[in-house]
Amino acid sequence: MVPDLPSLSRRAVLAGAGFTLAGATLGVGAVAPTALPDPVTDQASKWLPDPTDHRWHPPVSEAHARDAVERLAAEVERGRDLWDELDTDDRFTGDGGWLEDARRHLREGRYREATFYATGGMQFAAEDVGVALARLDRPEADPEHLAERGAAIRERADRVLDGIDGYPVVDPGRDLGWYHDIERRVRLVRLDAHERDPDRDRAYDARDVGSIHAGNRQAAQRVRDAEHYREQLRELVDDDSGGDGGEPWADRIERLDEGFRGAIAEFPSREDVRAEIESIEEERGPGPYYTARWKLSMWCYDTDYLVADWDEGLALVNAVEAAQALAQRRAHDRAVDALVIDPDDRGFDSGHVVREKRAAMRRFRRVVGESPAPLLSILTERAGEDIDVAEVGFAGSYERPIWRDRVDAYCYALIARMKLKEYPRVYERFVSA
After folding, report:
1. What's the CA gap between 256 and 252, in Å, rounded?
2. Of 251, 250, 259, whose CA–CA distance to 179 is shortest?
3. Which of 53, 123, 142, 421 is at 20 to 30 A from 275, Cα to Cα?
4. Which domain covers residue 239, as residue numbers?
5. Which range in 9-13, 16-20, 317-321 is most confidently predicted, on average pLDDT?
6. Which residues make beta-bridge pairs with 430?
């Protein structure tokens, strides 16, 4: 007679499964990931190490952050006063909770974060201020006044660009990172600050005025940020150059931009790549191979649309975007060649996700490390984000086959690794131009 085996409790089963999954995660180096069950490697993709937040940001002084927080607080107070004058059942929504966070970061000495939250909160508070100004028929709500205010902000941003004309450089990896962040603020100013629209054939309602006023207020803060960064960089360059102002790099940056765009022109167009992938779908159907090819093309050919629009005065931002676009196209071709998916496959082993994510992390540590140069951190930012989301179940849906989530995660890790093979090449072109 065979004795009865002791039954396992549900708690013991779950604990054992968790131990098995954790052990499998640690042991994927000893066992081929594709030899493990998919549920194990699905979980392992979530537990593998991700990149640290390596993106460099210019430092912000306490005085600058405090000024930004105080400006938001003043806008909130003004909004309360204006809404008290309105005869309405609507309520003033204020800053959306951003002011409290901005003040907390300021107290903790996290000045960049305090400035970020103060700028974000301004969108909410200033929009309600603009609505109240319009309903109260105040002069500040006049479209002509708003356009003049926007023009003045953009002119101030142009003066920031005049102040970095020539791009004096002592340490390219560092200084070009600073210039990039300054120009990026100016680009945001151009997007946010109101510009007169001669073709507009309808009046502005209160919500329009609120949105325009908020854009102007945020743009004004971004100009102050750009000025703050410009002054810090000027001191760095002067100190390191012994007061001679550094070596001008404007011509080099222009040549780099032209070179990158010329190399991009040698690749197939986005339309040609998309046509090739559509032919795969027609011939093979929307299986794993088609999905992988479509994802890789979208991430490498669709995300750099700004390269087509050369922004006047933002030479470094333009060159960096061109460099990233070139690296992405090269990475796309590498990734297609390295795919472990065949056109006839109808499923996908998530062990490949684990293997590829580990390989991407090894390359990330070699290329980026813990403290990359500012410009290198800017170039590689998206690759780090790709690794971070390379896990089965990220943004997944229960209404689609699980192999789609696995293919997505695999492609994120794969394209990150291939980008990290290319970014050092374009970075070296910048610093040794």
Report:
1. 6
2. 250
3. 421
4. 62-245
5. 317-321
6. none
Q: Is the predicted pLDDT of residue 15 greater than 70, yes or no?
A: no
| Residue 331 to residue 340: CA distance in whole angstroms | 16
Number of domains composing the chain:
2
Domain boundary residue, one of 245, 262, 293: 245
How many whole angstroms from its chain centre is CA 215? 20
Q: How many CB atoms within 10 Å of residue 204?
A: 17
Query: Mean pLDDT over all residues of the chain?
Result: 89
Same domain for 238 and 330? Answer: no
Q: Structure pTM? A: 0.89
Please say whether the beta carbons of 360 and 420 come within 8 A: yes
Handedness of CA 371, 376, 381, 387 (dihedral sign): negative
- Domain match, 268 and 226 both: no
Q: Which residue in 140, 173, 119, 155 sits closest to 369, CA to CA? A: 173
Determine the Cα angle at 186 with ends 324 and 208, to 5°.
Answer: 115
Distance CA(371)–CA(55), nearest Å, equals 9
Q: Name the H helices within 247-373.
A: 250-264, 270-284, 288-297, 315-338, 351-367
* 3-class secondary-structure state, position 92: coil
Residues 200 and 261 occupy one common structural domain: no
* Residue 208 and residue 277 in one domain: no
Q: Token pair 């209404």 is at which residue?
A: 399
Angle at alpha carbon of residue 207, lines to 201 and 211, rounded to 5°: 90
Angle (CA) 251-305-252 rounded to 5° is 10
Residue 196 shares a structural domain with residue 292: no
User: Which of 12-26, 161-175, 266-280, 398-412 is predicted with the least confidence, judged by mean pLDDT?
Assistant: 12-26
Same domain, 259 and 226: no
